[in-house]
């Protein structure tokens, strides 16, 4: 009896120790950097199908044309990581996905000022080429709804906020880049061309009116999952995720009232050891061909005006600059966001957790 | 001279562990603290802000409340379970141990997504409630849902220290109590429970302190209104890049935890609440 309970005790002690270790989790940073001759660029994005598409549309053709340049991929692209790397003086990332407002806000302090002489801003959508970033693509965040739930669908953004007329659960992403502040203002009657500077308090007051009927999803994946599992009936979801719902034969329809379009960018962390190679790579990936390729893969908006993507049937249903969009678009103002990012993030964050 | 030598050599095996602790714990902790009070001049602004921003205190209170609820639930479930483990055959005990450990052999993400499916609108929990005539029970996105999922994860941390303590209690004492005329209930509360208190405190402290740091489960299963302090830390670190403010918040949580540990050691009496897991021995009589 005694020896058995001793063994059991030892087992239990060992198990607790293992649990403590297991609960700590592990972080993996697959960083690598080349030395001399051939260069290896560390490319950091948001993972998933988006990064797979970036590998196919951007990296593989580039390596084919420049055999000395290869890529190491990592995720997630977290600006806090850049800050930590820059502060510690060990910058391991060379190209990363970033919100252009964040690149602008931290231009010269966390991100390299870029020299991209091969790019002519005239060939691109407004603000697509910045001092510290190069556009990647634009995302349109679209008002979609479950057509099985509403045979007579909602017609305007007002209907999104009208739970009396359209009972049901709403879904929105809490990320500033997905229009969480623009949509309530537009629904409240603010004209699309007068929306900046944003009246954040008014936007949050509008959300207050349907707060208990709304799922505030922490990221795009959570909202996509909720929409596909019928947890939300109306949702504000970016094109690159809406296409997954359509491809899965989900009965989703779009409301083309006013759609919020957001530039998504790439930048070079300050102190990257491969800055010149990174700049050349950035200039290559916004050319018409890769820009079209990425738009086809992800149903996003190409930033190169000469790109002619060959969209799928479902892709055409989401083409914010195509004939399907009978409404208007608001393009997120990078200047305003870069100047107000901290204050707005704090205000929204405090409202959300309060 | 010679005793000195012995002391040094007996310290030697500790060196790797101490170096590791210093390198990965003390140095970063010290840096975090220094950063939280410098701007770059000495300042307490980051700490003042925690008390005045109107959000941090709310979230800290919510975190403590959630952690306390999870701890109580884990104790209520874990105590009888651990007791059962001490009363069954070695084979059954093995099975019981595996059952309680299964959550840990499952990936965090798989476990949380499983909970989403179970708790969401149209999920099995809702159907079960509907079967007994209670409609519209959706636990996904609620504090209750978060608490249930956290309790599942925390259960082993309660069961294992309890098991080691309960297994070490000399059951002849219970017989003696019965022999002296005590009812089974009284024998439990007067003899068994006080002897198990060390394990209870160990389990409570482990579960409570670990619950204070939960991030993924509330982020996935709760709505932002159920944010715990870790989510606030993430917001300050990854969105605002305000490492100093995040450091200040982290320090406050650390101090709260340390205070609790000290308090638990006192309440736990002669048995060191945390040490009990490793030190409690079966009575050889």
From TrEMBL, chain A:
Name of the protein in question: Extracellular solute-binding protein
UniProt subcellular location: Periplasm
GO CC aspect terms: outer membrane-bounded periplasmic space
Keywords: Periplasm, Signal, Transport
Signal peptide boundaries: 1-27
GO molecular function, one term: thiamine binding
InterPro entries: SBP
UniProtKB/TrEMBL annotation, chain B:
Spans through the membrane: 60-82, 94-118, 138-163, 199-222, 243-264
Compartment(s) of residence: Cell membrane
Gene Ontology CC annotations of this record: plasma membrane
Source species taxonomy: Bacteria, Bacillati, Actinomycetota, Actinomycetes, Pseudonocardiales
Membrane-protein topology: Multi-pass membrane protein
Family that this chain belongs to: Belongs to the binding-protein-dependent transport system permease family. CysTW subfamily.
Domain of life: Bacteria
PROSITE patterns reported for this sequence: ABC_TM1 (PS50928)
Pfam families per UniProt: BPD_transp_1
Name of the protein this chain belongs to: ABC transporter permease
GO terms (BP aspect): transmembrane transport
InterPro entries: MetI-like (IPR000515), MetI-like_sf (IPR035906)
Native source species: Umezawaea endophytica
Keyword line: Cell membrane, Membrane, Transmembrane, Transmembrane helix, Transport
SUPFAM superfamilies: MetI-like
Domain ABC transmembrane type-1 residues, every copy: 60-264
């Amino acid at each position: 009896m005694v020896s058995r309970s001793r063994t059991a005790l030892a087992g239990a002690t060992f198990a607790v120790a293992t649990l403590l270790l297991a609960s700590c989790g592990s972080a993996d940073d697959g960083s690598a950097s080349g030395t001399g001759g051939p260069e290896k660029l560390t490319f950091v994005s948001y993972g998933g199908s988006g990064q797979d598409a970036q590998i196919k549309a951007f990296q593989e053709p580039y390596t084919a044309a420049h055999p000395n340049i290869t890529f190491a991929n990592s995720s997630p692209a977290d600006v806090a990581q850049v800050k930590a790397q820059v502060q510690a003086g060990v910058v391991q990332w060379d190209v990363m996905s970033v919100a252009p407002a964040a690149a602008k806000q931290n231009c010269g302090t966390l991100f390299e000022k870029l020299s991209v002489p091969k790019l002519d801003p005239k060939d691109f959508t407004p603000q697509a080429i910045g001092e510290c970033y190069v556009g990647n693509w634009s995302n349109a965040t679209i008002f979609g709804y479950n057509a099985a739930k509403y045979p007579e669908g909602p017609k305007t953004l007002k209907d999104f906020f009208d739970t009396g007329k359209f009972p049901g659960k709403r879904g929105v992403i809490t990320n500033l880049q997905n229009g969480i502040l623009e949509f309530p203002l537009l629904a409240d009657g603010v004209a699309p061309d007068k929306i900046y500077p944003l009246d954040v308090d008014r936007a949050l007051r509008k959300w207050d009116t349907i707060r208990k009927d709304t799922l505030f999803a922490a990221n795009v994946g959570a909202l996509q999952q909720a929409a596909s599992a019928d947890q939300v009936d109306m949702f504000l979801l970016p094109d690159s995720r809406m296409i997954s719902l359509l491809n899965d034969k989900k009965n989703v329809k779009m409301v083309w009232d006013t759609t919020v379009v957001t530039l998504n960018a790439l930048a070079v962390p300050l102190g990257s050891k491969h800055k010149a190679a990174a700049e050349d790579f950035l200039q290559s990936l916004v050319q018409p061909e890769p820009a079209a390729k990425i738009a086809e893969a992800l149903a996003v908006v190409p930033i190169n005006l000469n790109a002619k993507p060959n969209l799928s049937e479902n892709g055409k249903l989401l083409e914010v600059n195509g004939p399907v969009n009978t409404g208007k678009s608001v393009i997120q103002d990078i200047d305003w966001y870069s100047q107000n990012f901290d204050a707005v993030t704090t205000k929204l964050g405090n409202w959300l957790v309060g | 001279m010679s005793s000195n030598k012995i002391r040094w050599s007996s310290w030697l095996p500790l060196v790797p562990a101490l170096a590791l602790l210093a390198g990965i714990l003390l140095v970063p902790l010290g840096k975090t603290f220094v950063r939280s009070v410098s701007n770059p001049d000495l300042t307490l602004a980051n700490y003042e802000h925690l008390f005045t921003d109107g959000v941090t205190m709310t979230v800290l209170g919510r975190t403590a409340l959630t952690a306390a609820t999870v701890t109580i639930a884990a104790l209520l479930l874990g105590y009888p379970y651990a007791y059962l483990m001490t009363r069954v055959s070695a084979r059954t005990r093995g099975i019981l141990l595996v059952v309680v450990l299964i959550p840990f052999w499952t990936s965090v993400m798989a476990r949380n997504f499983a909970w989403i499916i179970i708790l969401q609108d149209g999920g099995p929990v809702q159907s079960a409630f509907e079967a007994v005539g209670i409609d519209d029970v959706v636990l996904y996105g609620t504090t209750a849902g978060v608490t249930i999922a956290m309790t599942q994860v925390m259960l082993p941390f309660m069961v294992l220290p309890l098991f080691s303590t309960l297994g070490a209690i000399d059951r002849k004492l219970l017989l003696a109590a019965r022999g002296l005329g005590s009812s089974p209930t009284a024998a439990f509360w007067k003899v068994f429970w006080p002897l198990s208190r060390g394990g209870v405190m160990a389990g409570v402290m482990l579960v409570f302190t670990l619950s204070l740091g939960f991030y993924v489960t509330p982020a996935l299963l709760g709505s932002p209104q159920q944010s715990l302090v870790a989510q606030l830390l993430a917001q300050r670190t990854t969105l605002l890049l305000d490492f100093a403010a995040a450091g200040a918040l982290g320090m406050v949580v650390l101090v709260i935890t340390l205070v609790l540990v000290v308090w638990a050691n006192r309440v736990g009496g002669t048995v060191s609440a945390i040490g009990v897991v490793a030190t409690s021995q079966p009575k050889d009589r």
